[in-house]
């Protein structure tokens, strides 16, 4: 199960990286279009979709690598049981919020598909298509938080080294 979850997080990160490369290409095409006097309809909207997809799909991988910003002032002052209790509370609350975020993201995709929502820009893209990356990203993010919570309950959660914490705070 551990290898499957890690592969899921890595796969989402690779997909996010692919979307970032596609975003770069879209921006370069837009710049070239302005310089060479041609227009690709909807390129700005697609760049926005690609940026959102990259951001949402990278959430879980970033969490699992300890790169999300955490305010550790209080937790670093605690030791033993109180520290573990606070970690468990924070992870449980985050897992619940991430699960709600995933639920409502998936619901938005379903509603956009059911109501045939279209982009209001000149690309006229069905909105459920770009929203799908958000839904997938939030579901994987919720799984990552649940994974972190289970690891903390089992006492298997990786603790960053003391110098390692400083790089993301």
Automatic annotation (TrEMBL):
<dbReference type="InterPro" id="IPR007387">
    <property type="entry name" value="TRAP_DctQ"/>
</dbReference>
<protein>
    <recommendedName>
        <fullName>TRAP transporter small permease protein</fullName>
    </recommendedName>
</protein>
<comment type="function">
    <text>Part of the tripartite ATP-independent periplasmic (TRAP) transport system.</text>
</comment>
<dbReference type="GO" id="GO:0015740">
    <property type="term" value="P:C4-dicarboxylate transport"/>
</dbReference>
<dbReference type="GO" id="GO:0005886">
    <property type="term" value="C:plasma membrane"/>
</dbReference>
<keyword id="KW-0472">Membrane</keyword>
<feature type="transmembrane region" description="Helical">
    <location>
        <begin position="12"/>
        <end position="32"/>
    </location>
</feature>
<keyword id="KW-1003">Cell membrane</keyword>
<comment type="similarity">
    <text>Belongs to the TRAP transporter small permease family.</text>
</comment>
<keyword id="KW-0812">Transmembrane</keyword>
<feature type="transmembrane region" description="Helical">
    <location>
        <begin position="130"/>
        <end position="151"/>
    </location>
</feature>
<dbReference type="GO" id="GO:0022857">
    <property type="term" value="F:transmembrane transporter activity"/>
</dbReference>
<dbReference type="Pfam" id="PF04290">
    <property type="entry name" value="DctQ"/>
</dbReference>
<keyword id="KW-1133">Transmembrane helix</keyword>
<dbReference type="InterPro" id="IPR055348">
    <property type="entry name" value="DctQ"/>
</dbReference>
<feature type="transmembrane region" description="Helical">
    <location>
        <begin position="38"/>
        <end position="60"/>
    </location>
</feature>
<feature type="transmembrane region" description="Helical">
    <location>
        <begin position="88"/>
        <end position="110"/>
    </location>
</feature>
<comment type="subunit">
    <text>The complex comprises the extracytoplasmic solute receptor protein and the two transmembrane proteins.</text>
</comment>
<feature type="domain" description="Tripartite ATP-independent periplasmic transporters DctQ component">
    <location>
        <begin position="24"/>
        <end position="154"/>
    </location>
</feature>
<keyword id="KW-0997">Cell inner membrane</keyword>
<keyword id="KW-0813">Transport</keyword>
């Amino acid at each position: 199960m551990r290898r499957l979850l890690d592969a899921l997080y890595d796969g989402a990160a690779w997909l996010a990286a692919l979307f970032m490369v596609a975003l770069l290409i879209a921006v370069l095409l837009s710049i070239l279009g302005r310089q060479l006097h041609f227009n690709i309809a909807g390129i700005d909207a697609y760049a926005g979709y690609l940026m959102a997809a990259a951001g949402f799909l990278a959430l879980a991988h970033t969490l699992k690598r300890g790169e999300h910003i955490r305010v550790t002032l209080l937790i670093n002052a605690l030791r033993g049981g109180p520290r573990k209790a606070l970690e468990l509370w924070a992870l449980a609350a985050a897992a619940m919020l991430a699960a709600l975020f995933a639920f409502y993201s998936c619901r938005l995709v379903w509603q956009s598909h059911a109501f045939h929502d279209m982009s209001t820009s000149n690309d006229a893209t069905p909105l459920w298509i770009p929203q799908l990356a958000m839904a997938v990203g939030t579901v994987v993010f919720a799984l990552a938080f649940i994974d972190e919570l289970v690891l903390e309950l089992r006492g298997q959660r990786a603790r960053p080294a003391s110098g390692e914490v400083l790089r993301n705070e």
